[in-house]
Amino acid sequence: MKASLKVIWPLALALALMLAVSAGAAAPAYMDPKDIKAGTSGYGLTVFWGDEPETFDFSVIAVTKGDASLADIILVKVSGQKIDAIGGIAAGMSGSPCYIGGKLVGALSHVLEGPDPKIGVVTPMSVMVRLLEAGKLAESARPFTVAGWGTFVPVATPVWVSGLGPRAQKALEASLGSKGYAVSPAMALGLGGADDSNGTFAAGSSIAVQMCNGDVEAGAIGTLTWTDGRSFLAFGHPFLNIGSVEMPMSKSSVLAVLPSDSFPFKLGTFGKPAAVVTEDRMYGLAGTIGRDAKMADVIVKASDMQTGRRKSSSMRCLQDERLISGLVGSAVLSVMDSVIMRVGEGTVYLSVIIEARQGSLFREEMIWSDADVANKVTSEVTGMLSLIAENDAQAAEILKVQVNVDVAPSRMTAVIKGVTLPEAGFAAGQTQSVGVVLKPFRGQEYTKMVDIDIPADIEPGPVSVIVYGGSSEDDDGSLDITDKVGDVSGISLEELFGRISLADQNNDLIIEIYRDTGASEEDFTPEYGAYEEEPLYTGRIALQSVIQGSAVEYSEVR
To answer: The domain at 295-408 falls in which architecture?
Structure first.
């Protein structure tokens, strides 16, 4: 088996939730918990090294209920030469099938938090099979206590991440944590990308569940509990606890079981996806073998105009609206960090293409940051994805995201210093010129002449002429895309795509004419619209600088 050595940064994730998948799956034969007695011995299957499942022993301590649990739990103590060698129940053993008298009992799923890592919990098959029954629901999984024993936690499921730099990994960790996933960082050396580990899935096989694959990989290693060759059950507790999902699954080869401060963990490879997880709920994972997961294609390209460095990265990631913005954002940040190799100021030319089954959008933007240009660009991209993913009209099936970034080290900004109008005022139906006075950063002030077409239907009378930049005047320079798009509640997905595509760019010079109401320049706030009323005229031109500031002058239409 060939595999490429990568330094990977695992995010240790221990997680949880609900139910429902494929009708038509034949439920496995299993032993009911009420028929299991304390002191009974059995065996489990898991992969300690390589690809072949091996046995370990266990004895039943008790069949009881955890705190507020809806189901019986089987308290066990594992043993055997391999268990002794690794120091107890390891992360990656989640889902290991356990048998008594040759009958399937359930999946090893939890471990005692504290002094004895050989004491754990088996999730009964009587509850795991609910994952194969449409319409059944279950409460969230979480650590629970057993009287006289202490707290049991789901066997930690390390999320292995390769292809991301340190800052991007922390950003992904924060994104997952903000959605309620319990995340704690760790470090390890491992192998990834093996493409020949797809043997036949069998009970006890080591499996990898992936959030993304390609140049960036993120996923977790666990154990397959049961399969009939088509349907499967695994883990015995949730992975991301997100219910119905489309997540690729592959075989995994175990390279070693390593010690850690909390629990030992399996180090393994991600194989080529050959199955799909469709349910991620309280009692484990369920899905289908031989079917591909629906994924979004992501391409990120960046270049540094000062050094000439270039990099591109491609991956496939979950379409899931709860996760896609964080996954794509981490890839954007990682590529930019690796290209500019610094954290600091810069001007960026950004273009973004987002294709969904319901439509597509193309947006260009110019971004300046005096502190962290890579992070600011990442926020702009994730803002677009979040607007789409969180829209209240319909679920968007995102098929492709393409991000292109060119970074210039210089500050390319200009501030509006004033506006000059025709001395004789405006003539309805005519094209007339307006002069906008601009002061580039460390440059000479100049006047940009802009031709505007005065609408023929404007009635004579006093008017206010507002000029402003597509960028706001905060310390760092610009409104983000969510500010510019504004309130999107109740609009269609098609209209949302249009709003994102056509929203003001930071390098836009915008001119608006309003009926003069006597309001002062202080009443004008570009981010909320001039005077909060509809303009009589709006025009814009794109310049080669991020435009900041505003100016107001008064005239009349003859």
So the answer is: 2-Layer Sandwich (3.30)
